[in-house]
Amino acid sequence: MAGTPDPLLRIPHLYHFTDVRNLPTLKQLDGIYSTAKLKEMGAKFHAGGDGQSLQLDVRSGMDRYVHLCFDLRHPMESYIKARDNEANLVYLKIDRAILYQDGVRFSTGVAYAQGVQTFTIEEARDGNMIDYQVLYTYMPWGDLAVKPRRRAAELCEILVPDYVSMKFIKNFPNG
After folding, report:
1. Does 3 map to a domain?
2. Which among 102, 110, 122 has a CA at the least distance from the CA of 156?
């Protein structure tokens, strides 16, 4: 519809969380690479997922994507910290312009999970699949009707094929 603003503009930015031990590699490689690309390059990295989740990523082809989330609180963060007491996660702020790169997809939950579907970003936008209201508007998070919506929205991912260039990272630490 002509004159209708792009709903993707409601997304102020996205996030990628990683272990701070990965920051030197990200700086050296000039961005964030998918686990498949990192393995192809022989780069050393501290994986966010455990062996099982990494295998599920490989089987589903999700290891070929950089996974981004909508908020600073991703439910998978607690699993990583519980599994690796040395994990020190940092959220890198990603410019929403990444949404307009070729091949970007939206997943309706953690991308490798059973029953989760992925769509092109255009399908997600046009099909109103992103719950902007629960992500970007104050709502009573304790409300039993709101809480499951919020959790579902937090699990959704933006999938970027292969690589997120450093030019999209807005808060990369200096040093």
Report:
1. no
2. 110
Match 């959704």 to its residue by tokens. 156
Whether 149 is covered by a domain: the verdict is: yes
Are 85 and 100 contacting, i.e. CB atoms less than 8 angstroms apart?
Answer: no
Cα–Cα distance measured from residue 125 to residue 127, given in angstroms and rounded to the nearest whole number: 6
pTM assigned to the model: 0.91
Residue 109 φ/ψ, nearest 5 degrees: 180, -165
Number of structural domains (the chain) is: 1
Contact 134, 147 (CB under 8 A): no
Domain assignment of residue 63, given as a range:
8-163
* DSSP one-letter code for 16: E
What does the pLDDT look like over 23-45, one tens digit per residue? Answer: 999 999 999 999 999 999 999 88
CA atoms within 13 A on the CB side of 174: 0
The answer to whether residue 50 scores a pLDDT higher than 80 is no
